[in-house]
């Protein structure tokens, strides 16, 4: 998944059952940063993005 413009006000929860998550968002600060889960925010985090996969790789950039 990619974005057209760099987000500046976003909270995100991205997880994958097979523990294969890559997140490349500039200025993101992560409260959870493991192989299978990334929880974080950019700015105030007023907009949200949630991605969950039970059986595949998740890449967000």
Explain what you see.
- It is a single chain.
- By secondary structure, the protein is an all-beta fold.
- The chain contains no helices and 6 strands.
- Strands 3-4-1-5 form a 4-stranded mixed β-sheet, with no helix packed on it. A two-stranded parallel sheet has the order 2-6.
- The N and C termini lie close together (6 Å).
- The mean pLDDT is 89.
Low-pLDDT residue spans: none
Choose one word for the global shape.
Answer: globular
The biggest sheet amounts to: 4 strands, mixed
The portion of residues forming beta strands comes to over 45%
Q: Give the helix proportion (percent range).
A: under 10%
Global Rg = 11 Å
The total of helices stands at 0
How many beta-strand elements?
A: 6
The arrangement of helices and strands along the chain is: EEEEEE
The order of strands across the largest sheet is 3-4-1-5
Mean of residue pLDDT? 89
Cα(first) to Cα(last) distance is: 6 Å
Helix- and strand-based class? mainly beta
Structure described in brief:
The protein is an all-beta fold and 61 residues long.
Furnish the topology, listing elements before pairings.
Layout: E1 10-16, E2 21-23, E3 29-33, E4 37-42, E5 47-53, E6 58-60
Parallel strand pairs: 1-5, 2-6
Antiparallel strand pairs: 1-4, 3-4
Task: Name a few traits of the molecule.
single chain, 61 residues, mainly beta, two-stranded parallel sheet, 6 strands, globular
